[in-house]
Every structure is written in C-alpha cells, then in structure tokens.
Amino acid sequence: MNASAASPPPAPSSGSVDPKEAAHFGKLAAEWWDPKGSSAMLHRLNSPRLRYIRDAIDHHWDCDEHDRRPLVGKRALDIGCGAGLLAEPLARLGADVTGIDAAVENVEAARAHAAQSGLAIDYRAGGIEAADGAYDLVTCMEVIEHVADPASFAQGLADALAPGGLLIMSTPNRTGLSKVAMITVGEGAGLIPKGTHDWDKFLMPEELTGLLEDAGLSVSDVSGLSFSPARGFEISERTALNYLVTARR
User: Fold this and answer.
1) What is the maximum alpha-carbon separation in the chain?
2) Which CATH architecture has domain 10-248?
3) Coil, helix or strand for 142?
C-alpha cells in the first residue's frame, strides 16, 4: 500500500480551520477514547463540563433536572467534536446531534465509536462553515484557541445558533498560571501532547465575551474551570486556568 492510499482524504477547505492544528489533532485520533492515552486530560475535563452544560440546559429551557432526555426535539451542534467525547452524551440527552471536526481522522474515529455505541450522530469534516441550518444548542469546547480567525469563527457560531438558542464554550485563559500549568508542566511532562497549545492564541474572558457580543450574542455566564488536587477539575469562580461561557441568541 502506498503512502497516498494509507492517508485519509483532507477535510474540505474551510476558512476557520488552521491546517497545522487539524494535522496535530488528527494524529491523536486513535487514542481519543482511551482515558489513559494522549487525550486523558480531555477525559478529566469532560465530567465537569457536562455538569455545567446540563445545568445551563435546565436553566435555559426550564427542564426538570431529573429528565434524562431534556434535549428531545432539539438540534445540537458540537464544533471541534474530536472523536465524540461530548457529542455522544448530547445524543444520549435526546438531541439530534451534528459533530464537526477539522481532522478527517477524528471524524472517522467518531463515526466508528458512535456505531459501536448505537448512536446516530451526523459527523462531518470541516470547520464551522460545514454547519447547516440553525441549531438550538451549540457547544464548542477547547476550540477557539486553535482556529485561524477567532472573530470570524465567533460570528460563525452565532450564525449557526437558532433564535432563542444556547451557545456553550470553554477555552484556556491567557494568564501566567495557564502558561505554566498547560504548557511548561502539562506539555513538558507529557500530560498533554507537545505542541497542542499556543499560549499567545489563548483568549481572556473579556476578549471572548467581546467577540461573542460583537457577533450579536448576549453572554449570560462566565464560570471558571479550575483544578483542585483533592477534587480534580471543577466548576468554580476561578477563571485563571480555564473557563466556560454561556451565551444566547
């Protein structure tokens, strides 16, 4: 088998996608679902992020917190979905889910895992431009710091959101703490794959909320995603490491 036959086809051209970032994450596709592999940190982040998302869903749509499928009848978009760590839980909550990722390898891994899990998720390769129609819920976790143009990407997120819809994002803050924790220690010690982050591309909360407001959205919450040696990652008021943002259309 020659090299060209072994390589997956490139993702469709997209103005929001940074090809170098897509190639980096595509190399990690095979280990995405391994909680002890190169994506171990994402697995640790996923539980508190899911709790935050569920709370935001319940508050926004006045759902019963005991309802196991509060997203029935709603369209959800997970942009930068990787191999489906968040898209699959959204599908289990009842949503009609579309997952988009810049790396074709991730999309292939996501499709395979969803099939094994018996979940019908529409996975697509590309950037925000691959979204179609309007979505009630848009999630975008640890993505905006990897795109080619954050302002146009934020506008794309807003354009994909239906009137009355909910956008939930997370991203690292550009602080001394995040630089030490995520790059010096995280990447230096091999806890995070080397080359994953460019600290200069991290956005401070006021910068991200400004981009979303410029795109016509109303920001309703900014919460910290911090780390405690005793409890692990948790939602808190401390935004210095990482934070989540909720916005409405």
Assistant:
1) 55
2) 3-Layer(aba) Sandwich (3.40)
3) coil
